Amino acid sequence: MSGGVDSSVAAALLQKQGHEVIGMTMCFNLPGSKSKKPNCCGLEGIEDARRIAHKLGIKHYVLNMQKALEKQVINDFCREYSLGKTPNPCVRCNQYIKFDALLAKALAAGASYLATGHYARIAQGKEGFYLKKALDARKDQSYFLYRLNQNQLKHIKFPLGGLTKVEVRKLAHEFGLAVADRVASQEICFLPEDNYRLFLERRIPEAIKPGTVVDTKGNILGLHPGIAFYTIGQRQGLGIACGYPAYVAKIDAGGKKITLGKKEDVMAREFLVQDICFSVKPIKKKVALRVKIRYNHPEALAEVTPCKDKLRIKFKKPQFAITPGQSAVFYNRDTVIGGGIIDKVK
Predict the structure, then answer these.
(1) Residue 189 catalytic?
(2) Active-site residue, selected from the candidate residues 27, 189, 242, 307
(3) pLDDT of 73
(4) Catalytic residue status for 41
(5) Under 8 Å CB-to-CB from 244, ≥6 apart: which residues?
(6) pTM beyond 0.70
(7) Which member of 41, 93, 242, 277 is catalytic?
(8) Where are the domains of the chain?
(9) Which CATH code for domain 267-345?
């Protein structure tokens, strides 16, 4: 229970269905933390979750997950940016924190399932459990959940998977939940002021070193303060006039070099995926699937081909800003097949 409307309604729905519900809230910004920013895992969220649990008449526990967050999410976040990549911490948080460490605590406490307010669905078939998109396409969060395995999926429930956000808020009012109209948090919970550059400056100052900015022909255009502050496809905040709309087309971590180009220079069709996982069974031969290269990017048809310990993805049409470090997730209609981390872009 984060204290938000989604997890609160999920708890109320399960209780209404006759389940014995226990509320568990993860705490990252503990009392005494320098961060005063309210978020789903901060003091404000904890208090809201506590009030909702009291309203529902259920037990409520607050769990300190800071060490797990540091080890599995924050360290990776810093390392990937220092290498010129753009990580997705929410994917790792779901894999290692919510549905690994937290799930283990729930099962140890005697629970049969861990339920959350995610917008996704789980279906059981002949080969196991399948992760599916939420019915509300605008809220679907299956992209962030693609790394869940069979041992996790069989102990997870997503009560909101068949509902729209409008329906969830309506239910919150019907249940008399005080957070019915609370605005959802869009920030990464551990970033102060939602500023990842400031966070990196404080956490890894030794990795923030200036370098050169060049065009696609190698001409020097200026200097940059550090490759960790840039991402593929970035247009804002470049501070360099090129005479045309310029985008970050390439990041060379070893040479501390940023390459700027036109939009067509940031379009690509083919790339490799590493650190692969599959929901049910692995892909063993070339197959056509729809691939999503980041959460807010529309899926596109591509050939997915096994290549040693990686996968080669080749889109039918060029895509904008295929970014190393982000996740590529494979879909067959509304079912998640698997995914991995974007590696080399060709």
Answers:
(1) yes
(2) 189
(3) 96
(4) no
(5) 262
(6) yes
(7) 93
(8) 5-194, 209-261, 267-345
(9) 2.40.30.10
